[in-house]
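hiii so um. not sure if this is the right channel but i have a protein structure encoded as tokens and i wanna go backwards to a sequence. like what aa goes where. can anyone help
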């Protein structure tokens, strides 16, 4: 995703106008320093994270828990003192996981730890496994060469602090199943897009290309993928893959949940921060993305505790259904497309709860001094100003595409793919001190952007065929 994000960042730099210099009043910088210290000592985000992951648990989009999460988010925003809380409907098709298993058959019979990819159809298939070292190798296989067989793409994903290897390995999940179908395969297995040696397995959405008949598609835990490779070195391996899952055929209406700390002067001008409320179903979605919800709800709350409201409105959005295609974020951008210029700047926390190490924003020349002021206020948190490094968070992309300015608060993702979309994504993986550092950064950023006099480059732009 990182590569796409970088390309997007380059083409989304706002047009240079003759704008007055954006400035941040010195008194706002003083308050930012106080907020930073207060946030580091504040437990609100941890309480929110615990509440969401404990009381709601996994939040698969369109599941029964989705509705509970929407009700939870509204109640939590009210409890945290937000001035206005409301919901906006988001409708999408629903996918369910009911059961899944896989086993090696024959002389070396044994179970394999697998999980269905989101969007996979159900069904039981049995066939000889053909291993490919990469998606490229699968692509190079002759047409029809996998007739009646199960394709197994065993492409590893290396650990990286910025998560960049997810962008490289991601197509195995998104495109692998369709490639396998074209070669005649009856089933698809892939080495899990994860970095943990635990016997857990990472799910995530796949899409089948138009005109292809979808096949059962699953990820295999890393130890099991290695086991399969060892078995294949000893001779042919037959596997039975049994998935009970699929699109239900029914649409579901969830909601983006929105809370505002209403601005004292320019209430129609909005600094947007947020995360996504949905999660995959295997863990409790603690790092993906209850942390983002907790960090941003707590940041708005801390600003709301000040004796007076910020100059502009702070808007916290808990986006619906990010996992199955930024569906809530697209609906938000569609619904608010007439207010892009008033979305002064937006930032989403959706890369876990690791410490923030870098800051960047899409601001034009006229706002560079203000951006450097924000960077200086973040520096005591160990955050470096890294111009040209970042990009909008996933749920900010639709808004950025139509002209919204964005900020990037880059989190250390070294451990993110140990947990991402798998059963280990639980609250005990989150470090409270790291979480508080995130809250401090979002609080400082949102406060200063709301107090700034002048904009950060948001301006309505015509769609130019850009997409995520
Ligand atoms: Zn996420």
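sure thing!! here u go:
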């Amino acid at each position: 995703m990182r590569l796409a994000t970088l390309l997007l960042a380059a083409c989304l730099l706002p047009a240079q106008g003759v704008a007055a210099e954006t400035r941040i009043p010195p008194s706002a910088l003083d308050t930012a320093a106080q907020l930073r210290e207060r946030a580091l000592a504040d437990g609100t985000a941890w309480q929110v994270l615990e509440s969401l992951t404990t009381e709601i648990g996994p939040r698969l989009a369109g599941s029964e828990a989705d509705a509970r999460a929407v009700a939870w988010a509204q109640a939590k925003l009210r409890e945290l003192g937000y001035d206005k809380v409301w919901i906006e409907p988001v409708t999408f098709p629903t996918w369910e996981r009911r059961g899944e298993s896989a086993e090696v058959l024959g002389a070396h019979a044994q179970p394999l730890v697998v999980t269905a990819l989101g969007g996979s159809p159900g069904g039981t298939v049995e066939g000889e496994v053909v291993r490919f070292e990469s998606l490229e190798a699968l692509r190079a296989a002759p047409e029809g060469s996998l007739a009646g067989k199960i394709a197994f793409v065993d492409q590893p994903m290396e650990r990286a602090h910025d998560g960049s290897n997810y962008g490289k390995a991601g197509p195995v999940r998104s495109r692998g199943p369709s490639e396998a179908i074209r070669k005649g395969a009856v089933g698809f297995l892939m080495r899990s897009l994860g970095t943990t040696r635990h016997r857990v397995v990472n799910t995530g959405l796949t899409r089948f290309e138009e005109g292809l008949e979808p096949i059962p598609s699953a990820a295999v835990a890393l130890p099991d993928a290695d086991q399969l490779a060892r078995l294949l070195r000893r001779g042919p391996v037959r596997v039975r893959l049994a998935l009970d899952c699929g699109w239900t055929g029914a649409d579901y209406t969830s909601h983006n949940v929105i809370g505002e700390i209403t601005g004292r002067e320019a209430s129609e001008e909005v600094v947007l921060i947020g995360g996504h409320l949905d999660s995959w179903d295997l863990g409790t979605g603690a790092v993906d993305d209850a942390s983002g919800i907790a960090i941003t709800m707590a940041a708005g709350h801390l600003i709301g505790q000040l004796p007076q409201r910020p100059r502009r409105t702070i808007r916290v959005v808990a986006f619906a259904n990010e996992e199955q295609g930024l569906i809530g974020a697209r609906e938000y951008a569609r619904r608010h497309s007439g207010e892009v210029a008033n979305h002064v700047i937006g930032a989403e926390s959706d890369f876990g709860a690791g410490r923030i190490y870098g800051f960047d924003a899409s601001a034009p020349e006229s706002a560079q001094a203000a951006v450097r002021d924000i960077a200086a206020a973040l520096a005591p948190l160990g955050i470096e100003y890294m111009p040209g490094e970042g990009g909008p968070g996933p749920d900010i992309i639709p808004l950025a595409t139509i002209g919204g300015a964005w900020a990037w608060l880059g989190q250390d993702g070294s451990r993110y793919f140990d947990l991402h979309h798998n059963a280990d994504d639980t609250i005990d993986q989150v470090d409270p001190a790291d979480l508080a550092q995130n809250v401090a950064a979002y609080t400082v950023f949102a406060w200063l952007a709301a107090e700034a006099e002048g904009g950060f480059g948001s301006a309505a732009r015509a769609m130019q065929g850009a997409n995520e």
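oh and The radius of gyration is 23 Å.
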